[in-house]
Write a structure and sequence with these properties.
The protein is of the alpha/beta class. Helix content is 36%, strand content 22%. The chain has one domain: 5'-nuclease (Rossmann fold). It is globular and about 55 Å long. Residues 171-216 are annotated as: Disordered.
């Protein structure tokens, strides 16, 4: 039996995007996987995002497709439109429940949960995972004003990881974007990785999996 820590990543896509956009860098998702594979046995890497169904083309679709073919388990659901009390049209797409259920179901099969989010609503989930013996690290930033992470979430976590400290190891080289734009972009093919492999990282083998946690 392996003595490596069993790790699972839970990425709140919208929250992580807002954080890195504010900080001015892009995630290289291949490098992100490699970073945590080197820390232990990476059982799962979940990515959660809501998507607008009736759009002819979604700007995040290439990323979602690439992640789905390259070691991530992508969880999506359609956004919901509503009109607020002021008569303004708004779009809602909260993935908190889906993330929480997956985390609690996986708790018996992991030693550490790494949560990429600063949303204070996850404080109760973090506490619930800790009661089940799972160590919880939260990745966000306090480098902005105001910080992108809720104080109650940061206090509850076993470890807070400042994402700016990870940026040299998981960030994408800004020169790649400039080169892509200079040459008119690359063809995006999630099955072959052509184009997307330059944008998000090269295709790689699927993650190691804990057979017990594969049920369902």
């Amino acid at each position: 039996m392996s003595s490596k820590q069993r790790i699972a990543l839970f990425i709140d896509g919208a929250n992580l995007y807002a954080t890195t956009k504010t900080l001015g860098f892009d995630i290289d998702y291949k490098r992100l996987l490699k970073e945590f594979q080197e820390k232990g046995r990476l059982v799962r890497a979940f990515y959660y995002t809501a998507m607008v169904e009736d759009q002819e083309y979604s700007s995040i679709r290439p990323l979602i497709d690439w992640l789905d073919y390259n070691g991530y388990r992508v969880v999506t659901k359609p956004t919901k439109e509503f009109v607020d009390s002021s008569g303004r049209r708004k779009v809602k797409g909260n993935m908190d429940i889906e993330l929480a259920i997956d985390a609690l179901e996986l708790a018996p099969y992991i030693d550490e949960m790494v949560l990429f989010s600063g949303d204070g609503d996850f404080r109760s989930l973090v506490e619930a995972m800790q009661r089940r013996g799972v160590r919880v690290s939260v990745v966000s930033t306090i480098s902005t004003q105001p910080p992108m992470i809720a104080d109650e979430l940061r206090r509850q976590a076993d470890e807070f990881i400042e994402i700016m400290q990870l940026e040299p190891r998981i960030g994408r080289d800004p020169a790649e974007r400039a080169q892509r734009m200079q040459h008119g972009g690359f063809e995006d093919n999630p099955r072959t990785g052509r184009g997307l492999e330059r944008r998000y990282g090269i295709r790689q083998a699927p993650l190691q999996r804990d057979d017990a946690s594969d049920e369902g």
